[in-house]
Amino acid sequence: MEETGGRITRDGIRIYEQADFAGMHVAGKVAAEILDLVTALVKPGVTTGEIDDFIRAEIVARGVTSATIGYKGYQHASCISVNHVVCHGIPGSKVLSDGDILNVDVTVIVDGWFGDTSRMYVAGNLSRKAERLIEVTHEALMRGIEAVKPGNTFGDVGHAIQSFVEANRMSVVRDFCGHGLGRVFHAPPNVLHYGRPGSGPVLEEGMFFTIEPMVNLGRPETKVLADDWTAVTRDKSLSAQFEHSIGVTATGAEIFTLSPAGKFHPTWG
Ligand code: MF3
Ligand code: CO
Ligand code: CO
């Protein structure tokens, strides 16, 4: 890879160098470790603001930086999206009830590298339909990652996700996508979670990006609330999301945000 240092593809996608994988690995690991610690906190009676306060304190304690505090005016260390909230839920006074499902999304900056990951949690008892939604969403992310290798396209990744979700009679949100990242939070390409095989930019070794499918039990349409952040399903159906930051290797993908404690999925741990 040495000869490709600093290269940008025709699609505007940065090709990072071999040594850069180590920086992303550390940043991703810090973000994943913080999400591991959130598991013990999530229960009925806790507010989303208390979870965010904990995340902020963990970020400070590790001497790293929150990528979201101050980002486009956002003031929190996480996004917490409960039930029919699709993404960008703002932590605050909302008290969790038994059976609530929530996505917690954390992005940290460590030595200039961005680690961005989110996963699902449950307060109390998980209903069967919520469990199925979470299972399908997680499996959709992993199928997307399995489609990542040099020579495949971003359309192959989107197709792997969409076809699996729709085969399970759920829907993929179109209004939000994954993104390139690395030494910046959001960069080309837009990583769509739907698509046609063979369409879109070709994947190359050294690309860093997120895959973060949002899946709804009902229809895919969303709307953003008056706070200009909170995205909800228009039909009020439940929504779930998982996010990993990954890098394209010679043969596949390295997942930077694997859970050190093996807690990435709420029923694992
Ligand atoms: N972490 C989110 C993502 O996956 C972005 C959150 S931006 C914020 O891209 F400002 F809402 F925090
Ligand atoms: Co992201
Ligand atoms: Co994120």
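^ MF3 complex. The first strand starts at residue 65 and ends at 66. Helices lie at 20-38, 48-61, 128-146, 154-167.
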